[in-house]
Specification:
Elements lengths: L4 E6 L5 E7 L7 E5 L11 H8 L3 E4 L14 H17 L7 E6 L1 H12 L4 E5 L5 H5 L8 H4 L5 H5 L6 E6 L7 H10 L4 E6 L5
Parallel strand pairs: 3-4, 3-5, 5-6, 6-7, 7-8
Antiparallel strand pairs: 1-2, 2-4
Helix pairs in contact: 2-3
Length: about 200
Amino acid sequence: GVELQPFDLTTGDGLSLRSWYRAPQPGKPVLVYFPGRRGDLFGKPKHLFELADQGYGLLLAGYRGFGGNPGRPSENRLYGDTTALLGKLSDMGLAPDGVVFYGYSMGTGVASYAATQVRPRAIILEAPFTSFPEAVRHQASPVPTWLIRSRFDNHSRMRDVDVPVLLLAGEDDHITPPDFAEALAAISEGFSKLHILAGANH
């Protein structure tokens, strides 16, 4: 298995948020992973551990209010925590060969925000949406109130992206259908590659 070290951040409002870090080998970037709305850092991103075995660094971003972390989430608080987390990573010199932002589902909205703060080497968006209100229209299951007020506007941010973007969508994903990824690919044409995974769901 891949060994991860706790990476703790003290936020501006005094919370201690735990993320998890693994150092990269020389020349390799750190993959900064932003999870979906369940905050799952260990089940869903298992495939990233294989990349860590190839020498990539990992930073699995722990959200406030998820995974044992204190606090109540909101879109702006997650953005503030993300800015602080990336600042600490940089200040400590822990990503000397740059970062790649990887967002899954709700985390695609955090990853696209992160790219407005720190220029990554690349962005990977798995099961992305254009904006959260658009995604909510597809939801059959109840959505937490704080999320209903959220925008997570990938659509407007993709216009400003000038680094390589990989968009991954499941052909049978009924929560964030592939049309969303196709729309984002069209906006960032020239920078993005779209892969629709046959038979895959959310």
